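Lecture 7 notes: from sequence to structure.

We start with a single chain of 112 residues. Read the sequence below before looking at the structure.
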Amino acid sequence: MIIVSVIVMVFVFRKIRKSHFVIEDSFYWILLCVLLLVFSIFPKICYSLSDFLGFEAPSNFIFLVIIFLLLAKVFFLSVKISKLQTKLDNLVQRYAIDSHENVRKGKKNAVN
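Now the structure, written as tokens:
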């Protein structure tokens, strides 16, 4: 698990350096890698938390945490997509209105 965490973190840092990631999006992935790295290096934390929360095995706890974090990411991405869709709709409507007004002005100028 340590190796996978480090590989993903290196991948994320390379994408940030090449400007393929927005910093706010990459923060989530870095946080996830650090969390996995902490659980890998200090497994007692994972064992203690899973015992405290009543999980049969620490792996079940890790899977639940990862699933929860991924669902949270999907939710926030859905919100972001909805906002972008609304902005796109407004932009398309504004462009259509401006184009229509330019065509009308062009016809008026051609008549005069």
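The first helix runs from residue 2 to 17. Keep this in mind for problem set 3.
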